[in-house]
Amino acid sequence: MKHSSTAIAQLLLEAGAVVLSPDRPFRFASGILSPIYCDNRLLLAQVSARRTITEAMCQQISDELLNTEVIAGTATAGVPWAAWVAHELSLPMAYVRSGAKKYGRGQQVEGGVQANQRVVVIEDLISTGGSSLDAVAGLRQINALVADCFAIFTYEMEESKQRFNAAGVRLMTLTNLSTLLDVAAQQNYIRAEHRSLISDWASDPAGWADRAGISAE
Ligand SMILES: O=P(O)(O)OC[C@H]1O[C@H](OP(=O)(O)OP(=O)(O)O)[C@H](O)[C@@H]1O
Ligand SMILES: O=C(O)c1cc(=O)[nH]c(=O)[nH]1
């Protein structure tokens, strides 16, 4: 069964993964302050939801990325998804640390990826794209071939689009912020004023805190 972007957004909402906190914004990995946070890690504990996500990822990879040789997860939140997808597709799995390990073999990429292997990077969520593209850079450094990244969710930030373009990486996602806001509004998960607030944030996430007069704690 094909899983639509709307169905996956609904799943995230039902799973309680989407949290709003306009008055005490979340700090993202990139430093950006945000009134919304999507905690896909909560899906790890929800067997039916994680099965649906894994199935949807496997389906798209089987349909569109026929030559994939390795599934690589970004540490930490991408790793379990990469493991489940690689297992289902009977492909080798690897993971990419945020930086090279400071002891042992000193590697950023773990799992024996070979030069010229075609690798798909799996991430749980894309904000600026910095984490996934660091993983791509780590893989390319050992001469792996990376042209595609796959994530559950993207905020559709202009910055991420530009960075993926510049890196020559195609980003595929199961769902995105605009779909999530549509579903959340239709089903009364969020009020109209919160939808407007999040849309305003999304129009310029990095400038939002200043615009809204919110100072970082
Ligand atoms: O697109 P970006 O701007 O890089 O932001 C998204 C990244 O941030 C989160 O990871 P986090 O740094 O919180 O670490 P974790 O995966 O260990 O939870 C998320 O899991 C992505 O990896
Ligand atoms: O950019 C991030 O750090 C980030 C945003 C978000 O909504 N969820 C998450 O896990 N990380």
UniProtKB/TrEMBL annotation:
Residues holding 5-phospho-alpha-D-ribose 1-diphosphate: R97, K101, E123, D124, L125, I126, S127, T128, G129, G130, S131
Cofactor(s) the record lists: Mg(2+)
EC top class, as a word: transferase
GO molecular function, one term: magnesium ion binding
Annotated binding of orotate, by residue: S127
Pfam families in the record: Pribosyltran
Cleavable signal peptide: none
Residue ranges annotated for the Phosphoribosyltransferase domain, each copy included: 56-154
Enzyme nomenclature, EC number: 2.4.2.10
Role description: Catalyzes the transfer of a ribosyl phosphate group from 5-phosphoribose 1-diphosphate to orotate, leading to the formation of orotidine monophosphate (OMP).
PANTHER family linked to this entry: OROTATE PHOSPHORIBOSYLTRANSFERASE, URIDINE 5'-MONOPHOSPHATE SYNTHASE
Protein family according to the UniProt entry: Belongs to the purine/pyrimidine phosphoribosyltransferase family. PyrE subfamily.
SUBUNIT field: Homodimer.
Protein name: Orotate phosphoribosyltransferase
